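Lecture 7 notes: from sequence to structure.

We start with a single chain of 146 residues. Read the sequence below before looking at the structure.
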Amino acid sequence: MSTKPTAPRTISGTHGYLWWDGEIVFECNSFEAKLKPNRETVHFAGDMIADSKLMSLEGEFSFKIKKVFSRGQIKLAAEFKAGRDPRSQLIGKLADPDAFGSERIVLNNCWFDEVTLMAFESGSLAEDEFSGGFTDWDFPDVIRPR
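Now the structure, written as tokens:
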């Protein structure tokens, strides 16, 4: 039987952390990792509703960081310029002290779709945005219902 949670038990993104190739990214503003199923439509005789068959998965990630360092340009732009496809490991963690525990995901074989070499807007804090895909993931820490 699950315990009914109270409001303080909900996790705040304020307590979210990101590690990029083992280095913590303190200036991380947001992080998201998701799976996108690729499906093929399947029709059966006599059925008016279509079903679907899972054919493959695509792992996608995105994150934004406050512009403090030239982190992305240093890690990725030179590799792309040399014709290499850099791969990374990303680790996301939520660890709110009021929560029932912490949650962590490890993304492996991460690639990047693009590198912003420079972007800014007058009167606004500068941010760098990163997105790409991955082929492997693991949940070393999860928060189980109580």
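DSSP finds one helix and eight strands in the chain. Keep this in mind for problem set 3.
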